[in-house]
Design goal:
Layout: H1 5-19, H2 37-52, E1 58-65, E2 68-79, E3 84-85, E4 92-93, H3 98-111, E5 133-138, E6 144-149, H4 157-162, H5 176-182, H6 189-196, H7 214-226, H8 230-239, E7 292-293, H9 295-306, E8 310-311, E9 314-315, H10 319-325, E10 348-350, E11 355-357, E12 372-375, E13 381-385, E14 390-395, H11 402-415
Antiparallel strand pairs: 1-2, 1-14, 2-3, 4-7, 5-6, 8-9, 10-11, 11-12, 12-13, 13-14
């Protein structure tokens, strides 16, 4: 009979988290790991004030230092309109925080020799093998038209993960080509590839950082290599080994009561706002932004990265792989003007799926060289600071621009509580 210890360990981990309130990690008093309980109380004071002023419906914050959970609190409302309080195990649309999960999934295949980071995208997705590069031309009358030129080199999997493949999001510009990219939403995976393959790249690969559909493409490469859906692959190889029991690409019916909702109206603009309904299966499990998770689940993922690939008895990645993933991948040949447009990561470079801080200064918030982070368009955010041995997850359903304010706010509130 084959040993079933891996399955037994997963079951024990699940039962332990259920029995002890679904805490992500072993609990310690803040002072035991160099943090101040008194200063951590400022998080609640500020967030309750923000909620009272109508800036956000609610939030969940989880903080680990030196491998111990020192803070895990919920504030405000899961559903403000219904008056439902926010539970600590609330489930959130994590949007682009899906990207680091998918980058890790691809790097696991890299370690197995099933794909290579420097391989061209077209090796796995022939539909994207011959994409030219757009060239905008202005005639004597001032009219701008779009031509194309050959790509000087093919985009690679590394380009997909660091956003230098020449792809972009349609919402990040108003050119004719941006409008074409904007039409790539609400498609199945095969339809997405078919439509994308008929478009030109925005830039020559490897020359410009621009936030992009790269991780959506990478997710489809994972499906091609593994011959299974992205969700199934990540469930078996990442979520289950890390005991991330509430993470996936759909909120099952028995968990809908924990699904966080935003305000129906943006408190800044008074415009209607919403988030995708993940209680229904997506047309395809997009690697760029379609997952859901909890603060506790994502903290376990973050702690695994902080531990250089290992958590409890699960070895997800090798140390060298995590070091590579979280290193700045943008050399001097890459134009990073678009990266500087993000106020919370000015002063950062970019790794594989995460922004990576280059130094103590420049950025408009505190941090350490080598810390890495990413956030989601619907209000979620995480960061890992190896120097301070810290991992932090902030979850909220705030799809408006207030999410940028919240990222800077939670960073200052957490880091000011370090007391060693």
């Amino acid at each position: 009979m084959k040993t079933r210890w891996p399955l037994i360990l997963v079951v024990l981990a699940f039962l332990t988290r259920v029995a002890f309130g679904a805490e992500a990690l072993p609990v310690a008093k803040p002072e035991a790991v160099g943090m101040s309980s008194q200063r951590l109380e400022r998080i609640g004071q500020v967030l309750r004030a923000e909620i009272g002023q109508g800036h956000l419906p609610g939030a969940v914050v989880a903080i680990a230092r030196k491998g111990k959970l020192v803070y895990h609190e919920a504030f405000g409302f899961l559903d403000k309109a219904a008056g439902i309080p926010m539970p600590k195990d609330a489930i959130f649309n994590i949007a682009s925080m899906t990207k680091p999960l998918v980058a890790v999934g691809a790097l696991m295949l890299y370690e197995q020799g099933r794909l290579l980071v420097n391989d061209p995208v077209g090796k796995y997705l022939p539909q994207l093998d011959k994409m030219p590069v757009a060239v905008m031309q202005t005639d004597t009358s001032g009219r701008t038209t779009m031509g194309t030129e050959p790509a000087r080199r093919k985009p690679t999997l590394q380009d997909l993960m660091r956003h230098t493949a020449g792809l972009t999001y349609g919402i990040r510009g108003n050119t004719e080509l941006h409008k074409m990219y904007a039409s790539l939403s609400d498609l199945t995976g095969p339809e997405f590839l078919d439509h994308l393959g008929k478009l030109p790249l925005h830039y020559q690969p490897g020359t410009i950082w621009d936030y992009s559909l790269g991780l959506d493409v990478l997710g489809l490469i994972i499906e091609t290599v593994t011959k299974e859906s992205l969700g199934s692959y990540l469930q078996q190889n990442l979520f289950k080994p890390l005991s991330m029991f509430d993470t996936g690409f759909m909120v099952p019916s028995q968990k809908v009561g924990r699904y966080a909702k935003p305000f129906p109206v943006d408190p800044e603009t008074n415009n209607p706002q919403s988030i995708p309904d993940r209680t229904k299966p997506p047309k395809f499990e997009c690697g760029g932004g379609c997952a859901v998770s909890t603060a506790a689940d994502y903290l376990r993922f973050s702690q695994m990265l902080l531990n250089l690939g290992k958590l409890d008895n699960a070895r997800i990645l090798a140390r060298k792989t995590v070091e590579y993933m979280t290193a700045d991948q943008l050399g001097p040949e890459v134009n990073i003007d678009r990266l500087r447009e993000y106020p919370n990561i000015n002063g950062y470079g970019f790794g594989l799926g995460v922004a990576v801080r280059r130094g103590y200064g420049v950025a408009g918030l505190m941090g350490s060289p080598g810390d890495f982070n990413w956030g989601g368009a619907y209000g979620t955010y995480f960061w890992v600071d190896p120097k301070e041995e810290m991992a932090v997850v902030f979850m909220a359903a705030t799809p408006g621009t207030l999410r940028l304010h919240n990222r800077q706010l939670i960073t200052s509130l957490v880091l000011q509580a370090i007391a060693d």
